[in-house]
Request: fold
Amino acid sequence: MTPLQILVGTRVVSGNTYQLEISNASTFATKQQTFTGGVGVLTYTATNIPDGVWYWHVRALNVNGVAGAWSAYRSFTVDTTGPVAPVLSAPANAASVIGTPAFSWAAAATATKYQFEYDNDADFSSPTYTSIDLTTTSHTPPAMALGTYSWHVRGKDAAGNWGTWSTARTVTILPLVPVAPVLVNPAASAVTNDSTPDFTWNSVVSGNTYELEISNASTFATKQQTFVSGVGVLTYTATNIPDGVWYWHVRALNVNSVAGAWSAYRSFTVDTTGPVAPVLSAPANAASVIGTPAFSWAAAATATKYQFEYDNDADFSSPTYTSIDLTTTSHTPPAIALGTYSWHVRGKDAAGNWGAWSTTRTVTILPAVPVAPTLATPVASAVTSDSTPDFSWNSVVSGNTYQLEISNASTFATKQQTFAGGVGVLNYTATNHPRWCVVLACPRVECEQCCGSMERVPLLHRGYNWTCCADSQCACKRSLDHWHTCLLMGCRHNCDEVSI
Reply:
């Protein structure tokens, strides 16, 4: 055993030498060892002390050898024997378990801690795993690899003595039964026009290989296709699957080919047939329409989207316009140039299959009827001395040429002048417009200055001698007998200038 070294105590006043006694009784009736140290010696290493409970005390002697009182005693225990070997509890010897188990054993007398080991060799020459000191009677080590192992346990007492190892047991670690995989693709209720779709799923713990089934029934009573993968394979590309609704699920198998539960099934639809051709609604075939119309058609069964085209060639070899995928049964394309076009429509289903084009119709695009132009000059109620005034107006959408009328009546029952301009012309300069000059007691020279060589018409009205110089084309000349009415209601309104 390791020698027990006893610290006699702290030096005391007048302490020259010290005596020590060790006994198996606190009365020190019998001594197992005694010791008298040299001057100033404060330690003692005992000779071999048997296991058991022991007592010790110390006293000091002065230089004359006179002894002082004994110290209070202390007890100590010598323990050189480890605990007995623990008795193993679980798993049972030669057990086969799924996954890493919890190992347990019965408590060993005097043991305060335990150590657990397992090894793939029965001699434990190089343990696969050794635990730290454990304070419980069970232990679950980190995940154990599959295989067969030997395991044992030993105890350690409070003195630090390790006991003997327990009888060894063996245990075989089996793979876990895999859980059901999670399906990835196709998505639930997917619709596809691919008759050889790809199937994928996620791996699971202890999944070594995987099994897939495809059926036309959710009970999988009959199988359209089955597949068992290689190790770690998580995909499958189906061979040709007919159009219709189908179901699929997957399960995992561990390295011992023990199968886990099937996944929840998913359905998918294979659809490789496009919708029937839509029936066109409007415009009617060979219709002529003003401006760009809204084209419409009847919904086609199974169609979820549509495509519209028009072309100036009936063979649609290079369509003038092709729409994006449409979700409605009508479409107004951007403004169509004037001319005659062929147009048709086709549908696309949820699987992405395009159906046949509809029967073709033709449409002729006519120009829109122009709105009324806005007049520019002369301004409203203008008065001018120019008998050949300039007229101008603003252009309008679809306005190609413009017509102008000048009349002495707002009903335009009679026209003084009319004008039809060339393409895009927005102005007109009038030819000579009639002019009246009415002068009181007008001398000939003044009248000629006013009216030139125009005819002079004398008229007596209300006691005044009026002279009217009139253009022979003026309508007022034809109403001389009603001059007052003509002047106030006719000439003043229609002539460029009236002077009195």
Remarks:
- Helices lie at 444-451, 483-494.
- Residues 435-500 have pLDDT under 50 and may be disordered.
- The CA atoms of residues 370 and 397 lie 6 Å apart.
